[in-house]
Amino acid sequence: MARAPLLQLSQISLTFGGNPVFDGLDLVIQPGDRVALVGRNGSGKSTLMKVMAGLVEPDRGNRVVSPGVTVGYMEQDPDLSGFATLGDYAAATLPEGEGWRVDAAAEGLKFRPEASVTTASGGERRRAALARLMAEAPELMLLDEPTNHLDIQAIEWLETELKTTRSAFVLISHDRAFLKALTRATLWIDRGEIRRREAGFDGFEEWREQVWSEEDEARHKLDRKIKAEAKWAVEGISARRKRNMGRVRALQDLREQRSGMIRRQGTAALELESGVVSGKKVIEAEGISKTYDGRPIILDFSQRIQRGDRVAFVGPNGAGKTTLLKMLTGELAPDTGKVTLGTNLDIAVFDQARARLDPEATLWNNLTGDPLMAVSGASDQVMVRGTPKHVVAYLKDFLFDESQARAPVKSLSGGEKARLLLAKLMAQPSNLLVMDEPTNDLDVETLDLLQDILGEYDGTVLLVSHDRDFIDRVATATVALEGAGRATAYPGGWSDYIAQRSAAPEAGRAPAPAKSAAVAQAATPVKKPAEVLSFTERKRLDELPGVIERLEGELAKLGTLLADADLFAREPVKFRKATEAVAERQAVLSAAEAEWLALAERAEG
Question: Are 192 and 21 in contact (CB under 8 A)?
Fold first, then answer.
């Protein structure tokens, strides 16, 4: 017998004083669904999630939640009024005696339940809201950008929790790695229409391009048909004394159909222009250290960054990534050691606090009032890489409507604020970009474009990010802040760092710090002479990749089986055997990987 859906939306229409956000939208969420909700910034993802949560009432249509089903919603800006501490807020809906659930979530998400609501940062408030939802464990969880303000360790904790939950969930996130790891279906909002694909986020871009290609083909065919019918309507008069009025009405219908096709929103016109060429050596840090209140943040760190390097800085929140960036760029003096900046540096900074934006001022004034962008004697022009441009035209390059130009910055969404800050950043020539959490709130399309722009940028990039996929795509070297003041440079991106850390000679001990990103990439370690493997060992080395692939495939199938939320109740024996099989195969897989690594190292020296 088919189970009732958890949530059903029928013929939902919603308008906020202009064009409809949704019109006639239908949506069903089933038990066990793990859904990625994707779409451009401003397409209505958060609004739809609020409709699903019952927080926004549609103009028309019905929202039905099955009897007994609880729906939990993690909002981006939670209201904590009336609560003394973050823990009070997070535990407010739990039965007495179950506060341990909040403590467990707080440990994973790294926030202090005893922290006062009045002094808590926006990131701490969001983590408290996420802890509240995870502790409640409703049948349906609605998560709106849960990874924002989380460090990579907290993201991985959340990823593990969501993999093992029996709840269904709908997830909005810009983090590709997070979406790929968790989702089994995709909801795509595009120009007020929602499409569903019964596959996770992996492969979404290919599906999107196919849909758009088919749409372009249909539009092209319709244009040709209208052109042919219009030609008949004009030229047919000379051949006939009376028009075929039915055909004329059909032509009008075709024209109305064509005008009703909503054009796709373009991509932001992101463009970076390098200023004067910097010297080959951009930054050299020699034995720098920084301590706060007796706690070491950075100890004896040396690094040489050369022109063209793209260096990512990773580590837990509070580890000192921003502090290290400020020391490397000369904004903050180290306690010991010295930093030497190269010649001809033009530095542009994207700060995670969005401090360069005045929330009370309009978008117009934020651009024209910036000394770096102001045009002498002109109140409606901004200087864009040395050329005056009308402020509205420049805002349109970053996908803002003319009506938004006079709106206050505080009315913008997180993604729109990030785009506005990119507009300010990209107006000035630079040869050293410092980007502190640039990926927060940006949609996938803008992230793609930003990645391409950074790849073509002639200057040097220093990047702090918790987006593992973005780091992999952009970074040529990764500096990991690993606690107790230790910072270590690794060649490559996030995945390269993880692989090298796992292969370190002693568990938990990282390689010695590299002198520079360039050296980290180019250095060739001294190898021991390769050992001659026996015939049996060589054969085993060749067989192990196939063994590992087979075990990974079996674990994936077992994971799919255990993801069935009702398996434990329906078939407890099968559930127990599958669980035991996962543990057994995981142990065998770990042993096979260790064996392959040992043999490969001996063979390569």
Answer: yes
Query: How many separate domains does the chain show?
Result: 5
CATH code, domain with 338: 3.40.50.300
Segment 230-235 shows an average pLDDT of 57
d(CA 223, CA 287): 67
CA distance 21 to 69: 27
Tokens 């969001």 sit on residue: 126
Within this chain, do residues 444 and 520 fall inside the same structural domain, yes or no? yes
Using DSSP, state whether 124 is helix, strand or coil: helix
> 279 and 413: one domain?
no
Range of the domain at 250: 207-259
Q: CA-to-CA distance for 230 and 107, rounded, in angstroms?
A: 68
Q: Whole-model pTM?
A: 0.69
d(Cα 404, Cα 20) in Å, to the nearest integer?
17
Do residue 467 and residue 590 come from a single domain? no
Does one domain contain both 277 and 248?
no
State pLDDT tens for residues 87-116: 999 999 999 888 899 999 999 998 889 999
Same domain membership, residue 516 and residue 459: yes
CA distance 521 to 293: 35
Query: Mean pLDDT throughout 47-61?
Result: 93
- Nearest to residue 108, comparing CAs of 150, 48, 166? 150
- DSSP state string for 156-208: HHHHHHHHH-SSEEEEE-S-HHHHHHH-SEEEEEETTEEEEESS-STTHHHHH
Taking only the tens place, the pLDDT of each residue in 276-306 is 788 889 999 999 999 988 889 999 999 999 9
Same domain, 244 and 376: no
Q: Which of 482, 501, 525 is the last residue of a domain?
A: 525
